[in-house]
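A further point concerns the way the authors explain their paired sequence and structure data. Since the whole study asks how a given chain folds, the encoding of that fold should be made plain. A single example would do more here than another paragraph of explanation. An entry of this sort, consisting of the sequence and the corresponding backbone structure tokens, reads as follows:

_____
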Amino acid sequence: MEKKSKNKCCVPRCFDRISKRHRFPKNDNLLMQKWVENINQPRLSSLQPEVIYNTCFVCDRHFAPEFLVSGTRRGLRRDAVPTLYLSGKMFLRHFNITAKCINMRISTAKTNTNSKRLDPVSNYK
């Protein structure tokens, strides 16, 4: 028997394949709209709420810990809103490099005229 794969997270540039997936709120249009606004995926804005509920999912990684409820089927508080890693920051998190570290390295490289190439990871080994 073939194992069913998880539905893809609809957050742009999220490549998580492990975390639990959550459906958009079904009976609260204001909360659903807040999810759509936060995720900022242009395709979602053009879909009807029923279509979003039936076809789109958001993974655990996009919810603050206080919104997660372990031991329940739903896994989220009713007022949960995705707020984490919504603008392509999953790539940085995946490699345990924060945007702040990269920005510090870039500003250092710009002031150092002897720097021949920019390597954002070399100073953090």
Notes: The two ends are 43 Å apart (CA to CA). Residues 89-99 have pLDDT under 50 and may be disordered. The first helix runs from residue 29 to 39. Strands lie at 21-23, 57-59.
